[in-house]
Amino acid sequence: MPHAKFTPKSIAKLKPPKRGQIVYWDSSKGSPPGFGLRIGKTKRKTWILYYRLNGKQKRRALGGWPAVTLSDARHLATETHRRVASGKEPESEKTIPTTIEELLEQYLEKKGASLASTSLQNWTWMAKKIALYPVAQVPPSEVRQRHLIGFAEELAYNQRKKARANGKSIGERYGEVYANRCCQFVKIVFAWAVERGKAQLDFNPLAGMKKPFKEESSRDALTEEKLRVLVPVIEGMDILYRAYFMLLLLTGSRATETRLAKWEDIDFKERTWTKPKENTKKRREHIVPLTDEMISLLRVLQFRTGRWEWVFASPEKDGAPIARPSHQANKLREVIGGWVPHEFRNTVITGLEALGTPTIVVAAVVGHKIGGQTAHYNKYEYIPQKRKALEAWGKFLNEIVAGEASYESGASFPNSARK
Q1: Residue 404 contacts residue 413 (beta carbons within 8 Å)
Q2: 124 membership: H or E segment, kind and range
Q3: What is the pLDDT of residues 294-306, one digit of tens each?
Q4: CATH homologous superfamily of domain 3-95?
Q5: Residues whose CB falls within 8 Å of the CB of residue 65, separated by 6 or more in sequence, listed in order
Q6: Which of 153-157, 168-172, 368-372 shows the lowest mean pLDDT across its residues?
Q7: Distance CA 368, CA 6 (A)
Q8: Domain spanning 224-412: which superfamily?
Q9: Cβ(117)–Cβ(261) below 8 Å
Q10: What is the pLDDT of residues 301-322, one digit of tens each?
Q11: DSSP conformation letters of 403-418
């Protein structure tokens, strides 16, 4: 990061970057440590201060230049350091977020502890992606739907360009979907800011905004023909990814929940996999009964990753689970002409319904919220019913792959969950 001796004249001459943002650090004698000026592509300049409290690095926005002068910003930085030195969080002195980027950061800081780890991870990445575009520097009070639409179009264009350069057609659709998700995240944050009075907003300028792009439904289950092609490809993979994809297909679990599985969550004696609530989308603990096929896969995988914390331990990064296995996923897309991980989940639900599994048990298997007036009071886990359903699905899947069954024949399948 560049340094500069801050004076009113030198600050006015600091150049913005061609894209994203840049931080200039004050190298003047006596300047508070961690004090700098952030400049975005739109030429907006914001005072910032980095400091450490209880061993954690934090960042505080001190307001925008020239509304907040150099002298005032240095004074705020010095006062912040004084409070931090006494072990106090500068909460009472916190400024109102001056940009969308700061508002997103404030939301994640305030709400992070109450979010599922998957949501926090995804939204953190989205905040970082949004920070690379001019929309991040727009003041919350000035934002309009056109700002987000322009951002979404630019993000989708860049994704399409990148996908075409790499020869991956799936990236074109993904760019539009990801742009929609980023816009949805910003809408959620603005609704929170209006409700909590975080950005001096009298109304939510993004209320009622529709998705910038139409999305193709990802609710389709894999056909029998695709399963007969797909499963042999998975079975030919290295055990790490074979177990990962087969567990998705055998349990209907969400991809991120599966990647975050730890060996302490697996109980071979009770034959269960317990997903802690911090890993689940619904923020509820979810127990998955393990069938013989799942146990066999995990036992083999245990020889590879059992010494580590994570079931699907990364071969590239110590102490971390695998990242999204895009290379292996692309192999699956190549053989069936397009595919997204959620289709495994749809396939399990469709297969269980074809087997005559009661809908309430299907919901329990995949961790959906069970509806009805008694849902709030119903704490039953349906373990025996889920186990029977997953055992029937595993056998049914093998029959489909072998060409001996179809969804239409599921109701008469000898291992039907109705029986």
Answers
A1: no
A2: helix 117-130
A3: 999 999 999 999 9
A4: Integrase, DNA-binding domain (3.30.160.390)
A5: 11, 37, 45, 46, 47, 73
A6: 168-172
A7: 56
A8: Intergrase catalytic core (1.10.443.10)
A9: no
A10: 999 999 999 999 998 888 889 8
A11: TS--GGGGGG-TT-TT
